Amino acid sequence: MSIIKEITTHIRSRKYSAQQVVSHYLDMIRQCDPPMNSVTRLLNDRALQAAAEVDHLIAQGKDPGVLAGVPFGVKDLFDLQGEVTTAGSKLLSKNQPAKQDAEIIRKLCEAGAIPVATLNMDEFAYGFVTDNAHHGMTHNPHDYSRFAGGSSGGSAASVGGGLLPFALGSDTNGSIRVPASLCGVWGIRPTYGSLSMQGVFPFADSFDTIGPFCQTIEDLKLIYDVISGDEYTSSSPVTPSELRIAQLGGWFEKDVDDDILQTIQEIMTLFGKQKKIELPNIKQVRTASYLMTASEGGKLHLPFLKKSPMEYDPATRDRLMAGALLPVSSYLKAKEIQYWFQQYMAQIFKEYDVLIAPAVGSVAPEIDNPVVFVDGKPQSARVHLGIYTQPLSMSQCPVLSVPIYRKNKLPIGLQLIAKPHHEDLLFSIGAVLEQKNIAKASIIERNHMN
């Protein structure tokens, strides 16, 4: 069921006004968000004014757009007119307010959607846990003692926590896929370069992408169609037996919980396939991704690091400084590996339509025990939660984050990977998995309007 279409139907039929819907969500955030800490600012005046404009259009018999009156949240690195884009930092909080919305925000607003909040993130999107020195920790909506994931943790938690129908985030090396998995929601990292980054604060230009978090696969496709400029058409249905699908083994099986591997097998059986492949040199690919991200991020911030180093979260500052000091030769070697990997993946997709892999190796780590396992040894969750997402960022392929619902258990998630510009195939497969009750978002039920 589409949560978004339900909202727009009620508003168009005038069962509720857009102002009532927006006020309801604003009140719900005020009441329910504090222990989760997903929201950094409420856009109260802008939201209510926009809602009044939607109601006025409907009263005149005009079409306010496919997303008429739907509230949403924005990771705090997207420009919002009249607001300071902080990227989760104290450093940028002194900047002038944005003069216009980011391109993606403009498209959503033109379709009738209404931004109601900015959302918490790791400072400058550098991290996997949304532990922000200035705004605090975002907690997992399903267990406040655990991480929400990052860096788009506020976005994933607000949707998984039932506070927003959808939210925007960004993904450099897993910042949509990791929190979507840990918070139990749908998310997508689109094909690199396919969506406008105008008005989005950068981290690493070679990898930065943006995308939505949603409660259903239908909603995810709808929001993607709006921000990508596609017409709002249905994805072509897929016949599982006709798809060429392969499981990624090796690196993508190590330190992965049995529940996740069993779910992958269930999906492979559904599609009538038992093919498993290993991507070569994947450890080197991940290292190259890490080096390129650190180098590009470090060089971007170097002028600020020289001028105002104490304005940074110490953990972020140290990693950015280390990246800025990496030799050019290391970066160029990493770029060579990226080019090789993209060529290799292009060959893989001549044989297969879709690849499947874990997005995370386990449920969300405990905040008091912030570790994940790498080669059987405990390592920092802040650094290593993206161990299965980072290598795939090098491919520039679209990746769907699929929430695997397990009754009375914490969420986990998988990655479905297709060749560039084949997002529709991923949406179609996601719809099949949702229909078969293999994939389902884990959403905290709130006192919604009905």
Domain module tally: 2
Provide the low-confidence segments as ranges: none
Cα gyration radius (Å): 21 Å
Helix content: 25-40%
Strand content: 15-25%
Oligomerization category of the chains in this entry:
single chain
CATH class of the largest domain: Alpha Beta
Would you mind describing this structure in some detail?
The chain has 450 residues and is of the alpha+beta class. It folds into two domains: 3-228, Amidase signature (AS) enzymes, CATH 3.90.1300; 240-423, Amidase signature (AS) enzymes (Alpha-Beta Complex). The protein is built from 14 helices and 17 strands. It has helices spanning 3-12, 18-32, 44-59, 103-110, 153-160, 177-183, 217-228, 258-270, 282-307, 314-324, 328-351, 381-384, 390-393, 423-435, and strands at residues 39-42, 71-75, 114-119, 131-132, 136-137, 139-140, 143-147, 166-171, 186-189, 209-214, 245-248, 276-277, 354-358, 371-374, 377-380, 399-404, 412-417. The strands form four sheets. Strands 1-3-2-8-10-9-16-17-13-11-12 form an eleven-stranded mixed sheet, with helices on both faces. Helix 4 crosses helix 7 (217-228) and helix 9 packs across helix 10 (314-324). The longest helix is centred in the middle third of the chain and has 26 residues, at 282-307.
